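Holo model, magnesium ion. Inputs:
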Amino acid sequence: MAGISARKLDKVYPGGVHAVDRLDLDIDDGEFFALLGPSGCGKTTLLRTIAGLEQATGGSVLIGGRDVTNVTPARRDVAMVFQDYALFPHMTVIDNISYPLRIKRQARVARHARATEIGVQLGLADLMDRRPAALSGGQQQRVALARAVACHPSLFLFDEPLSNLDARLRLEARTFLKRLQRELGVTTVFVTHDQAEALALADRIAVMEAGRIRQLGTPREVFGRPANTFVANFIGSTPMNLLDGVVRGSTVDVAGGSLPVPAGAEGLVTDGEKVIVGVRPEYVRLSRSGEGLAGEVSILEHLGTTTLVTVDCGDELVGATVPEEDEPEPGAAVRLAPVPGRLLLYRAEDGELIGA
Amino acid sequence: MPNTSRHSDPSGVNDGPAAGAAAGTSHHGAVAVDPPLAAAAATDVVGLGRARAFAFVAPALLLIGVFLLFPALWTLYIGATDYERTGPKHVSPSFVGVGNYTDVLADPSFYNSLWLSLLFVGFSAVIGQNGLGFALAWSLRNVAGWVRRTVETLVLFAWILPGSVVAFLWIAMLDRDGGTVNALLGTPGLAWFVDYPMASLIIFNIWRGTAFSLMLYGAALSSVPPSQLETARLAGASGLQTLRDVVFPHIRGHALTNTLLITLWTFNDFTPFLLTAGGPGDDSEIVSVYVYNTAIRDGRLGYSGAISLLILVANVVLALLYLRMLRKRSVS
Amino acid sequence: MTISDDDARRAAWRMAARIGFYALTCLIAVFFALPLLWLVTAPFDASPTYAVDVPEATLDNFAEINANPYAWGSMFNSIVLSIGTALFVVVGAALAAYALSRVRMPGRDALLYVLLLLSSVVTGTAAMVPLFLLVSEIGDSVHPALGIDSSFAVMLVMAGGLLPAGIFMLKDFVDTVPRSYEESARVFGASPLRILKDIVAPLIAPGLATIAVWTVVNVWGNFLVPFILLRDPGKQPAAVLMRTLYTESGQPNLALLSTFSLLYSLPVIAMYLYVSRKYGFRFHGGIKS
Ligand SMILES: Nc1ncnc2c1ncn2[C@@H]1O[C@H](COP(=O)(O)OP(=O)(O)OP(=O)(O)O)[C@@H](O)[C@H]1O
Ligand SMILES: [Mg+2]
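Output:
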């Protein structure tokens, strides 16, 4: 078992693409760590640099305290699951799972016994003699996991292992993966561009953009207190409301009304400063009368047990989720009030969080 | 090119399994224009190492260099000497500069062989194989399975059988006294290879080489979108109109490729030697046979080296045209 | 009335076109079949002639092959030459294609371009003089086992000629193998040679088979190179012996010629059937060049 540290890690591809940009990162032993970010932000590159498949152009990588920056992948004691699983098509499931052991020169009987044991554990008992082409996507994914487990690494590296599964299977596989990781207790780095997956699985999440980490924290922190508007925008299945506002004393003028400056930001803003007010639709209360921003219901979107209501407030659109039974009529005049303590204030010029 | 990071990877959006392989190649494509320093980093995805990579390539390169590249270059030198296979000029050949070339270019038998090769290539390959190959591919495309398979197999057999065998098959078939052709045509005693050597060689080579054109045009025709053919049919176009307006625009590139390749091969083909050895006299002494006769039979190595070089130059021109075609097609 | 007249005329016209078409197809089929016919009838004919006729079935002609001192030997020589050359080509092309596909070496694209050019430009016709001289020279100054009359030299010469196209075809196959297979094996700790043997070779097996068959067919039928480089009839392959059978004896022995032709052709036909059954007869730049 081992933690990972990256120190000023840099990866510039030939051609000048700066895929990982002087990145510092510490992942604890046994942690389930998610790398999250939009396409092309450098997640895969970071993972491959940790695995040793890409040579870092600067900085260093430490695994379990050992500097492995110039060590070949074989000597890093890691196992990687690729997005396309990379199961060898000409080998049966059992040969695939036991391949890492074959490399380590284990006897055929011993490695097959071990592979069978893991196969049974992962529900592959009946499939051991099939070829990968004769397996479903979910089964292939489990074979890939089994193969990674078989080589007993101190580190798992997963590159979007769930993205080739259909939505339903993905939920199952997610639960399965989390249980497996808890049982084995192996440090795991998990790359995904699906924020829900990251929130559900990870102990901690690093949200990346253009080769840098924009926020690092627990799922709760990342979801509840996004450190900047980029993360705020990226996290959450319904997009966060980000509204332009201007500070007026202890209130903010926003969307044709005004809201109190959150307690955490008091004293950090000056009168007349431009800010961005952020609040998740889940944290907006909708009422027929009373306090808050006044507006008119324009669109209703059904999300199952809740409904996303888009309200026309002044010249901004504000979203709020309401329980299905409280659904307003389109065109109705309503009031919107954020749940106390859930209002976030970002600086307009750089999008960083001022306070909540 | 610092600011192109987002745009340089066309597949950045989608890293699916199929796109993965494509992405690999597209990255490589991008690398081609890199400064050499940066290129050192991500050149080697599988950890082969450059030294080992060179070691992997070396055996093949050695063989190619010694037995293909070197002979080609050596021709240049041989052609500038009066080297002979035996005798005093074998022991100590002297340098004659462009002497051989001026001799060759003044030699009527060279022009004779060149003219015969032109006839051979023009009639048997450019017109014969090309035309018959396309006609067969076009007319067989909708024909019932077994008819098509039978014809295709026959045509392919003519192509894959060893040259020595097909040569004798034709000698037997065109034999003066017992040959099948004379029996069928009722022309007993006609010695085809003596009376009509070039015509016989041309017919023979059409028979021998049509398979390639048939297959290439078969593949090309299957790339014409059926919807366009159907549109033409709905519009009431006749067969010839369809060919002209729908099919030819699609297969023009293939036709050019095919013509260049079969020209190159036919020009260099040595099988006619097995049928006529250039005779009677020099009536069928096409260039490839002419080189053999002057070099190995007559032993005038320096002189034939000069001819070889001229052939090489012609080949290079044809091959460069072909490669340019390929490149253009892969771009579009 | 006029309409049905028109229709009838058109139907008749179409009928005629159809019949004409099939007649023409038959004619072309006959054109292609006629020379081949002799190959299948004469060997079994008790008194073979040049003409194609229904044979009085017999297998006696095959005894003629035993009577010729060089016949079986030449067949054996052909096998040795083809298999030897195929080994050189398959191993050489596989190693080179793998390295060229996976490692970006300086000048790789130029190298590939030159290879493609060379493979089509330097033909036996253009290079027969220097090849003859080169091999004589090597035989004189290095070792006679590499000179004129050496099968080994013939193999090397033919391998050199076939390798560029072989590398090219094989690189296409290697390029289709996703790198993640190799990367995955690499993370597990497999060495490059190990990866080549365990992962890449099985995956490109169809490509290796294609190159092997392609080489064998090419060498099997090649006349010019062994004709120039092998003088000793005991070393000549079937392609060269075949010619001496009908040019050097006064009255050709048709029983021998026909049976020898058939036996000599069978491996090529068998390989064709194998390839077309297994992969469909698709060609990569020409299975024969
Ligand atoms: N081999 C390469 N050569 C050059 N540039 C590359 C290479 N691989 C990736 N890149 C570039 O590096 C950047 C980061 O790529 P990376 O694959 O790490 O993104 P990602 O976050 O994994 O994206 P995705 O979610 O789409 O998988 C991209 O701009 C990409 O174009
Ligand atoms: Mg990725």
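The mean pLDDT of chain C is 84. The two ends of chain C are 60 Å apart (CA to CA).
Archived with the compound record.
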